[in-house]
Queue: 4 jobs
Job 1
Amino acid sequence: MKTQDRLDLIKQVGEEIIQEEELKKLLESGEELIAYDGFEPSGQIHIAQGIVRAINVNKMIKARVRFKMWIADWHALTNNKMGGDLNKLKIVAKYFIEVWKASGMDLSKVEFLWASDMVRDSDYWQLVIRVGMTNKLARFIRTAEFMGREESTEQLTAAQIIYPCMQIADIFKLGAKITQLGMDQRKVNMLAREIGPQLGYWKPVVVSHHMLMGLGKPPSADSDRATRTVKNKMSKSNPDNAIFMTDTTEDIERKINKAYCLEGDIKENPVLEYYKYIVFESFEKLGISEVKIERPEKFGGNISFKTYSDLEKTFAEKKVHPMDLKVVLIKYLDQLIEP
C-alpha cells in the first residue's frame, strides 16, 4: 500500500491530526508504527465505543499500523469506576472486548494490554513521577477533560490528579508513535507532545477521532473546541442521550424518535452523524449498497443515497424530512446491534 493511501485511511479516522506532515514522515520511514487507544472499563458500552471504535481501529489496521488497545483498569480505579473494584473492572473490560468482536473489530491484529500488568513494573512508576515533575500542578489540572469531566476541577480527588501523569507515561511505555484517542483527550495528548522530548522520548502524532454527539440538542457555542466536544458527546449518565449496545428495538425507536434533528440543519445534527459515522460505514455488514428511504408519492416518493454527502445535501435542501431519516435509521441501528 502506498504512503498516500495509508495516510488517506488514517485521515478518515482523524478529525484532527497533529501534525499531518510528521505522520507522513513516519509512514515513509518504513518502521513499524504503533498506535494506541486506552479505555476505562466502566459499565455500559454505547454505540460510539462499540461500533464506531471497531470501524476506526479496522481502518488503522488496514493502514498497516500496529494497534495496541490499553485496558486502563487502574486509571478507572483512580476515577472510582465500578466502585473502585478491580475484579469488577476486569469483568467489564472482557465484556467490552466481546462487544468489539461482535462489532467486527479485527481482534487478530489488535494487542490488548492491561494497566494492571504494567503497574507491577517499577520503571513505569518512575516514568509517571518524571512526567509529573515536568510541570506545575495547574498545568495538569487544565487537562481535566481527559476524564470527560464537566464539573469544576475543584471536585477532583488527589488520585485523579495522578491520571494524566499515568496516561502520558502509557504512551512512551507502549512505544506508541501515534495516539489514537478521541477529541476529548486532545489536551493531555498535546501535553504529551510537549513532555516527550524533555524526557528523551518522541513527540507522538495525535490522531483524534470524532466524538459522536449525544442525541439531545447541542449546547450553545460558548466554549473552546475541546471543552465543547466534552459537553456535546454521548454521556452514560443520561441513558436517553445515547444508543447502547444492549438497547432493545423499543429503546432505539424511543431514543431516535425524540432525537434532535432540525429540518434542513446539517450542523451538529446527531441523526446525520449516525448516518455519516455508522450507517455509511456499515454497508457491508448491513448487506446494502445504498440508503433507501421509502415514502408515499405525496411525500416525494422513494429516494436512495449511495454517499453521505448526497444525503446531507438533500437534507439541507429540505427534500428529506427528519422523520424520513429517523424511521430508516431505527431499522439500521437495530440490525447492527442485534445480538
Job 2
Amino acid sequence: MLLASIVVLAGIYALLGSGFVIIYKASRILNFAHAEIVMLAGYLAVSLAVAIPFSAASLLAVLCFCFVLGMSIYAILIRPLAGYSVLSAIILTVAVGVLLNAVGVFVWRGEMEVIPFGWRTYFSLPGNIRLSSIEFATLGIVTLFYACMGLFYRFTKIGQQMRATAENPLLAAQRGISIYRISGIAWGIGFAAAGLAAFLLGINYAISLQIGNIAVAAFVVALIGGLDSLLGTIPAAFIIAATEQLTITYANPRLGDAIPFIIMLMVLMFKPWGLLGTKEELDRV
C-alpha cells in the first residue's frame, strides 16, 4: 500500500510540476497562481461530476476551461507586460492567485470536496501490492500525458516552435515564429496540466483551500527537476513523494511538509540548475 501511495502521489506531483515547467519554458515566467488554478479546476470538476455523471466528459470540460483560462490570462494580463521586468509579471500572477482563491471561497465556500468516481475495484500485483481502479487510472493518465507531450514537442509544428522559442526566443522570432502566440498556447497547456492534476487529486484525495500545500511541493519538484526540463519532473516527483511518505509513515508526520524543501536545498547546493535542467538556466533560477 505504501508503494502504491508513493507512485500515485509522485505521478500527481510530476503532473503539477509539469505545469510550471511548460509555462516557464515558453515565457520565462513563474506562475505563482498555479495552486489556485488547481483548486479552482478541482472545484469545477466536482460540480461538473455531479451534473455530468460520465467522468471523461467532465474531465474534458475542465481541461478545455483551463486551457482557455490560461490563454486568456496570458493575452489579457501577461502579454501587455512584455518589455517590462519579469518580476512585474510574476507579481501579477500572485494577484491572480489571490483573486481565484476568493472565487473558490465565494462560490464553493472553501469546503472539502471529493470528485465521485463510479468504477472502483482492486487489483493484486506481485509483491503483495494492491492497486485500486482509481490508482490505475491515475497512473495511466499521467503516463499518457507525458507520452502525448513528448510526441507533441517532437512531431508537431507548434511543439517544435515551442522548443525553438525555449532555446532561443530572439532567433525564433527572426525565423517568423510568433513568440506571443506560442507563449499563449504554452500557458493554456500549463493550465490544462494543472486542471488534469486537480481532477486526479479530487478522485484520489480531496479538493480544498489547503490544496496549495501540494502545489507548493509541486513547485519544488519543478525546481529540483529543472525549470526547463519536463522530463526532470518525473525523477524529482518520485524523490519528493518517496521521502515524504516514508517520513510520514516511519518518522514524524509533522516533518512531511518540510521534506520537499530539505530535498530541494540538498539538490540545488550541488546542481543549482536542477537534475535535468541546463546550466544556462542558472542565472534565471
Job 3
Amino acid sequence: MFFYNDPTFLLLIPALLLTLYAQFKVKSTFAKYSEINSKSGKTAAEVSRLILDSAGLRTIPIQEVEGDLTDNYDPRDKTLHLSRSVYNSQSVAAIGVAAHEAGHAIQDAKAYAPMALRQNLVPAANLGSQMAIPLFFMGLIFSLPMLMDIGIIAFSLAVAFQAVTLPVEFNASSRAIKVLSNYLAQDEIPMARQVLNAAALTYIAAAAMAVLNLIRLIILRDRRD
C-alpha cells in the first residue's frame, strides 16, 4: 500500500507537466519554422560547415543520422551529427538546430569548462541513474538506511549532470544566435531563437524533474528515521 499512497509523488507533478509542455513546445515550434525556408538558400549542413570552418574546425566531420531531432555533437569522436529532418533542410528551424550543435563543437574546441565537467560526469551520472532508485527502494523496503543513503548519493550524480547541462545548452544557443546573423536574414533570427528556446525548455524540465526526484528521495529517507 505504501507505493499507492505516497504523497511525495505529488512533488513530481509540476515537473511532469513541464516536461509534457516542453515536448509539445519543441515539436510544434520546430514544425512551424520547418515550413519557412531561409532566404540564404543554404542547407543546415552547409551552414554548420561554414560555422565550423570559420571557427577553424575544418577537420570536424558532419554526418547525417537516423531519426528526428536526434542532432548532437559527440566530443568523444569530434563529430557533428545532424538528423535527417535537419541535414538537407533549408528551413530556419533546421539551420537553428545545426548552428546550436556547431556551438557545442566550438565549446569543445575552446575547452569550455561546463562542457568538460559534463563529460567527466557522464560515467558516474549514467551509473548513478541506473543504480540509485533500485538501491534506494531496496533500502526502504528492508529498512536499511545506509542503502538509501547510497541511493541518494548516486542519484545526486545524475542531478549534477542535469544541472551542469543547463549552462552548456544555453551557451551553445547563445553562440548559435550570434553567428547566425552571418547566415540568416534579420527577420529570421527571432524564428531561430524561438526554436532554440523551445529546445532549452526540455533541458529545464529534465533538471526540474531530477531535482524534485532527489527531494522526494530525501523526504522518504527522513520519514524512515
Job 4
Amino acid sequence: MLKRKAMERLLFWKEHKTKQAMLVDGARQVGKTHLVREFGNTNYKHLVEINFIDNEDARDAVNAARNANDLFLAISAYADDELVKGETLIFLDEIQQCKEVATKVKFLVDRYGGYDFILSGSLLGVELKSIRSVPVGYLDSITMYPLDFEEYCWANGVPSTVFDELRDAVAERREINDAVHRRLTSLFHEYLIVGGMPAAVADFVAEHNVQSLRTYQQNIIARYREDISQYAESIGQSRIIRRIYDLIPSELNQQNKRFKVTSVGSGARYVRYQEEFLWLVDAGVALPVYNVDEPRYPLMLAERSNLFKLFLNDVGLLTCMCGMDVVRDLINDRTDINYGALYENVVAQELKAHGFDLYYFKNNAIGELDFVIEHPQGMVTPIEVKSGKTYNRHSALNRALATPNYGMKRGIVFAESNVKTGERVDYLPVYSVSLLERR
C-alpha cells in the first residue's frame, strides 16, 4: 500500500470542515480513487461508492434530481453500504460523467450534513468548464499528482525520518551523510525511469521488471490518448491535441526546450491552437512553464503565455516515450548522456505539486534561467538544473543575481552534488527539490 501525502489533507478536512464536501481532482491514474477508498475504509464504518461511469442508471437518477430529497433518494437507491449519519462517507466518483452533481453539492451538505461527501473524477478541468459555478463555501478541493520523489522513497522502504534529517541538513546548508546521499541519488536515477504513477510504482517495487513497468506506462499513455479522442470537442481538435502531446518528448530534446508551435504544423501560431494546448493543461497531463520578461515579483505580471516549455505530468511517462535506449542508458549510469530534459521534468513536477506556479526566464543579455519561483513574502528565487558534472558553471544565473533591478538575493543549482554553499548560490542535490514548498 502506497503512502500518499494527500491522505493528511483528507484527514484535516474530516476534522476541521463545517459544511463542505471535498473534491479530489487530478489527472487520470494518479491514485485518486484508491486514496479515497483507503481513507473511507480506515476512517468510517461505512463507505458508499457510486461510480458514474460504471453505473449509468445512478448517473441518470442523479441528473434528474430537482432538490435535496430527490438527490439523496437517488444516492440511497444505489448505495452499496449502509447510510448511517456520522458513520458514512459517500464517495461520488468519475463525476465528469455527471457534471451537474458538482453544482448540486449544496443540496447535499445543507440538507444531509450528517454524512461526509467526497467527489472525484478525471479531466475535471476540461469537463467542468461548461457547467454553472459551484456554490461558494460548499466545496473544498485538493489536486493530486503522481507520487513525488519523497513518496517514491517511502514506497521503497526509506523511513520518513531520513527526510526529516534531509530537511534539517538542507535548511542548515550542511552536507548530507554520504551513505544517505548515495542511496537517495540511486533512487532518484531509478525514479527517472519509474516515475510516480501509483500502478507503475507498485509493480516496479514488487517486481523490478522494466518490461512490466513499461507495459503499465504504455497503457497509461494509451488511456490519455483515448481520453483526448473521447473528450475533445471535435475529431479535428483531438488530432491536434494528440499531435501536441506526442511532440512533447522531441521538443524537450531541443537545446532550449521551448515548445515551438510551428512543430504542430507549417505556419502554425499559438493563438490558433491555444485551446488545444490548454486542453492538455486542464486535463492535468501536461505542465507548462511560461516565460517571463523579468524575474521580478509578482511574476504573473511579466508572463508571456505564448512562450513556454511543455513538460509531462510524470517523468516516467516521458522516459517511456523516449524509448528503451534512454532506459538502458539510465540503468547503465552513462555520464556522457545529457539527461537535462528528464531532470527538468522532475523539477517541474515537484514545484507544481508543492504549490509553485511555473516560470522560466530568458533574454539575450542574461541568458536562460531554467525556473524562477516566487514566495508569498515577495521574494523571487532563480533555479538552475544541472544533470552533468559541470554544475558550478552557471553564467546566466551569475548575471541575473548581479542585476540590481531584479532584487534576487540567492540562487539554487539542483545537481548531482551534495549540499554546498557559494557566495550567492546554494548547490543542492537534485532529489532535494521534493522539499521545496510554497509557504
